[in-house]
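hiii so my PI (J.) wants the whole complex modelled not just the main chain, which honestly fair. so below is everything: two entries, each one labled with what it is. i double checked the lines twice but i was tired so who knows lol
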Amino acid sequence: MSNGKRLTSQSEDFSAWYNEIVQQAELASHSPVRGCMVIRPYGYRIWELMQGALDGMFKATGHQNAYFPLFLPKSLLDREAEHVEGFAPETAIVTHAGGTKLEEPLVVRPTSEAIIWPILSDWIHSYRDLPVLLNQWANVVRWEMRTRPFLRTTEFLWQEGHTAHANEAEAEEETRRMLGVYRTFMEDWMAMPVVTGLKTDTERFAGALRTYACEGLMKDNKALQAGTSHSLGENFARAFDVRFQNEEGEHVYVWSTSWGVSTRLVGGLIMTHGDDEGLVLPPKLAPYETVIVPIWRDEEQHRLVLDASNRVKVDMEAAGIRVHVDDREGMNPGSKYYDWERRGVPLRLEIGPRDVQAESVMAVRRFTPEGSDRKTAMPLAGLGSRLRTFLDGIQEELLTAALARREAATVRGIEDYAEFQRLIEEQGGFVYTGWCGEADCEQNVKEETKSTIRVIPDEEFRSDGAPARCLCGAPSKGEVVRARAY
Amino acid sequence: MSNGKRLTSQSEDFSAWYNEIVQQAELASHSPVRGCMVIRPYGYRIWELMQGALDGMFKATGHQNAYFPLFLPKSLLDREAEHVEGFAPETAIVTHAGGTKLEEPLVVRPTSEAIIWPILSDWIHSYRDLPVLLNQWANVVRWEMRTRPFLRTTEFLWQEGHTAHANEAEAEEETRRMLGVYRTFMEDWMAMPVVTGLKTDTERFAGALRTYACEGLMKDNKALQAGTSHSLGENFARAFDVRFQNEEGEHVYVWSTSWGVSTRLVGGLIMTHGDDEGLVLPPKLAPYETVIVPIWRDEEQHRLVLDASNRVKVDMEAAGIRVHVDDREGMNPGSKYYDWERRGVPLRLEIGPRDVQAESVMAVRRFTPEGSDRKTAMPLAGLGSRLRTFLDGIQEELLTAALARREAATVRGIEDYAEFQRLIEEQGGFVYTGWCGEADCEQNVKEETKSTIRVIPDEEFRSDGAPARCLCGAPSKGEVVRARAY
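here's the output for the full assembly
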């Protein structure tokens, strides 16, 4: 129970606010294992709702789930040169098992390409076996130095899509399709607007031709990479000899992709909507979309309001709303309000004896856009379907507000380096600039400003008049989105 | 595609039959990691359907999902003496991570008691915090010497329930409740009858006071332990100092339970219903409950039957049936029949041009009980709801048949050791005998007959007239169920 604990304000110390909200809303807690968190029931329920939505979208686009081993023999990880270079330094290694030393050490998967491709090479023979469209829900381990709950943990939960295609065009189309699925999920379910685009070579996945990403902007004006989709070319097919006979009878390599999102999304959700009162959850991902708080003084009133609360609950469940009646005794209504506000429940219904007599309830929003009322009295008749509409409206309002916030923190057309430095230092946010295309220049700006190129934005996110020059003064080869990031 | 491959018959070599069916129905395949299998999409979908049903039952009994770390610091595993003795010999150990040797080795969880209880000790303070009712869906690793797909693998997927209670009676009630949930799932969803009861001390979970189990009887007359539920007493609470203030103000230890089922259930499903033609799936756990095979000779017929097939599909989906239209070209209908029979699809609908004209389809069952017709012509009108009822009937018939098979392979009231030895050697199955209660006697019988005491059966499974004497001749202290087992 969060009741009574003070929460640091976002403006005071955003990082402290984040850590406190994770604890106080009982989303996660620390564990005795360095860098590993425990996902508590309330936090895990949010992840389950995310999983359910994503899994449905993956299946609707033709993907099937499968499960591959947790361990990779070290020799397999070593096969793709760039991949092993990127991942080996942060792996956990099993050297002993069953009481003896292993002949070959096993790597706990940091990602599964190096175990999936040697296996798929047995499944794929002909063009008729393609495309292969797989997804896996799993835990992975990356030995990170600095960890934060949800945002960066040694072990995390994720899904990893792995697909094989007959040619580059189909692989590229799949890579883009899944980036689109992620964007739709982030906007429609998380109410978190994202900018999509291509990563620069220095930021792409180790072993990929191209990496695309969704970038959200958090309330502290730092960017969060929320999901990535990789066009892997023939790289893994060559490393693991995954070939098929094409329609012309030739044995050629498959083209593959991989794409993933993780429990990091829960961190994104917290930092997109949370405020100084605590968590703010969009209805679609709230463990409870509504909590009913009955108010009573004596036993007679207790029976009356509890009975009414339970009838409202049944009505709401019939309208497809996740609802909870907080009938805890020995706790006053104000404390309950405080508790559920801290936990981000989108809507609270207060039901007292007078409300029952008036056949109405008082609905109180967690998030109130400007110009709307925080409290609304609503008649009991037809309440379920009215609240369904009301909650769907809140979902949309959260996206609108998050979009407005991001736009207010986005500056376009910056060419002057001093101005760029001032913007990054003083306000953060997304800064659109030109880029000469050189990795050295990218690295200089990163070292001097702690900002990185988040993406080379997709067409729909490009500015009308992009700068002609890079921050270094050289001619720009295209627009980029820069920010300090998690 | 399984088409054309010969399947060893069950009577010829049950073990070979099992391995072939796992491969040919594309349920799982081997991996480059010793003892670890790959769960292929068709097998994983069965597991997903199992998960969905079980998860609903866990939530309906008040449990919440959470997630705890994959790794246990070795010192934590060492805390509960009996527990570490039972599990340490089969663990996998991480000694290096992030490029350096770890100060303390990490154990990959073989089960999670040793990481969950130190964490829960921070969550539980007062009797008002109890009961704690948690479940985790996760992978675990046990370094097994001899492995078989689904039945015994080094890594496997499972769920593990972990609960804390204020006293022994409530913990015992929970242990029994979850055993009942497992039994209901196995009977109602898997159509796999089980005998439930108490494990002997030598067979109980390392660290438990009492272990209860569900025991199925496979088609080769060997028993399969399909699920276990443990009353852990105060053992883990004492080892990890998990105490709470009770209503009297005393600080006392919690009473805990744990319970689990795993991907082993998929193996149980295969061996409960499969036959010489391949897999036989109960509708409730079949990735496709029905496959529609359109039959055509020319383009005109092709359009006609495909159109009719898709209309039937829509009708069936509206009735809540998982259905697939097999419209593969270049493959004759007979090969498709063979393929889906091998994969155990409960019902096939054949739709040819004449069927379309007659406004009917031919429905062909995978499993046909004696006295029923394998093929039934059915009118197109109202097909969806008729098939829903038909499939529900097949589900029941499978349970009835499995129950009859088990009863036919069960012998009760055996007192004579020579007769017992002959029964176990020649027919297998469940043999009910008396037991003196001595571990030495239990061990002797195990060594001499390779059979074990599966359970001390719950009251509803006890015989009317149980033997007065154990197989060793000493007075019996109660009836037991013995069998050779997986």
